[in-house]
Write a structure and sequence with these properties.
The complex is a heterodimer. Chain A is mostly helical. In chain A, about 80% of the residues lie in helices and about 0% in strands. Classes of the chains: A mainly alpha, B mainly alpha.
Chain lengths: ~220, ~220
């Protein structure tokens, strides 16, 4: 294979790859932000005392977690037009990724909040803090540190999952490989380049996550 | 119109069940083989053999850092260039097995490292061979930590198996994709796909949650 490995062709296609790398980054970036918002809301609903809110959030989280992302993407991609909603592929993709990751992030945030000892909440109630104040000043500041690494882990998963968007013909990193194959039929060059670019994003995010964990340990020691 | 579509969908249920069987076959085969390889890799990962742990670690990182879709394209399109011609089904099983092995390797390695060092020292002091140390002393205790995330990982892998539809394996997702070309009711078709996945995955998620609760209780009792 290496005999035929043609770096010049890869260089020719670099502009396309860079454009698609950028597409992957902004699609994932928007979806991560969206998922954080959706996840926080879903988590708040799940932890609330209202039965119906807990039920709705539980249904959402469980149904997302027990079906594959690809089926969800197709569900929106083929399903929304039959409801009369016509939106671009990019928007469909971002919505699918947001809803998917939102469910996982809700679970991560919930685990973080539940890991705070009950005594903290009880002490806050005893001091007369209201629920929002308890959350704002007592629970969340303690919960956030430990939830950042798993949230970054979920962000890594989301970036990888965004590869599936190529199947509904969004021009992102994997699609760049497919385009290169259809034009030149050089699968090795096409997909290995794609893989290397994904690895690049992965290592940056992993590095961030590890650095954060180290600073956490450091802070706890102090 | 809905009536006609619904009837068409009901008529294609045998087709979906065939797809479900394919999903079960691909993921079942990959999970069994992947678990075995994953345990071996995990034990190597924490061993002191020269170079091997580093190589396994690097490989696991590469697999965890790239999207499964890209991996499956690499297996399906690049191996033929090396003279290995594969049908879609074996290519899918190979890619998914590799993915399963890498994720399970990390879980197993984490579980083994969580067993207190004293256990190994005591086993060495009692004159057990390193094979017996692993199988009689370390692994049984590590299983407590390994089992809940392992079942959770199975759910993720079964869901990832939907991606093999991209290379033309007729699993549930592809059955849905093919049906939606005839019956343009995306919500209904992929709703059915979602239900079929839900039927497999949801019980497993519950098992994982139950295991987690039981194992923690058992661990605190120790």
């Amino acid at each position: 294979m290496l005999r035929f490995f043609n770096f010049r062709v890869i260089l020719d296609y670099m502009p396309l790859y860079m454009k698609c790398l950028w597409a992957t980054i902004w699609l994932s970036g928007v979806s991560i932000l969206g998922a954080l918002i959706v996840g926080t809301i879903a988590c708040a609903m799940r932890l609330s005392r209202s039965r119906s809110l807990t039920g709705i959030a539980g249904c959402y989280i469980e149904s997302i977690r027990s079906t594959p992302l690809l089926a969800q993407i197709y569900f929106l991609y083929f399903g929304l037009p039959s409801l009369g909603i016509r939106i671009s592929e990019e928007v469909t993709g971002v919505i699918a990724l947001t809803l998917n990751s939102g469910a996982y992030m809700a679970e991560i945030i919930r685990a973080g909040i539940l890991s705070i000892p009950q005594g903290q909440t009880e002490a806050a109630i005893a001091t007369g803090l209201s629920y929002p104040m308890r959350m704002r000043y007592i629970v969340l500041p303690q919960a956030i540190g430990a939830t950042i690494p798993p949230l970054l882990g979920q962000a890594i998963v989301l970036v990888k999952d965004s590869a599936l968007l190529s199947l509904i013909s969004i021009a992102e990193l994997t699609r760049a490989g497919q385009i290169m194959i259809s034009e030149r039929f050089m699968p090795a060059e096409a997909f290995l380049t794609t893989a290397v670019l994904y690895l690049l994003i992965y290592y940056v995010l992993k590095w961030l996550s590890e650095r954060w964990q180290q600073s956490l340990i450091f802070r706890e020691r102090r | 119109m809905w009536g006609i579509y619904l009837q068409g969908l009901l008529e294609s249920i045998p087709f979906f069940l065939k797809g479900l069987w394919m999903t079960v076959a691909v993921s079942g085969l990959s999970l069994v083989v992947g678990t075995i390889i994953g345990f071996i890799l995990g034990i190597i990962r924490v061993s002191r053999i020269r170079f091997l742990p580093t190589i396994v670690g690097a490989w696991v990182d590469v697999i965890r850092g790239t999207p499964f879709l890209v991996q499956i394209f690499i297996v399906f399109f690049i191996l033929p260039e090396l003279g290995i011609h594969l049908e879609a089904f074996p290519a899918a099983v190979i890619a998914l097995t590799n993915l399963a092995a890498c994720f399970i390797c990390e879980i197993v390695a984490g579980g083994i490292l969580a067993v207190p060092r004293g256990q190994k020292e005591a086993a060495t002091a009692s004159g057990l061979s390193s094979f017996h140390q692993m199988t009689q002393v370390i692994l049984p205790q590590a299983m407590r930590i390994i089992l809940p995330p392992l079942v959770g990982q199975y759910v993720l892998l079964i869901k990832d198996s939907s991606v093999v539809s991209a290379i033309g394996v007729t699993d549930v997702t592809r059955a849905g994709w093919l049906t939606v070309q005839r019956i343009p009711e995306g919500l209904m078709v992929f709703g059915l796909v979602g239900i079929l996945y839900f039927v497999i995955c949801y019980p497993l998620i519950r098992v994982s949650n139950t295991l987690e609760r039981r194992m923690t209780v058992a661990a605190t009792r120790l």
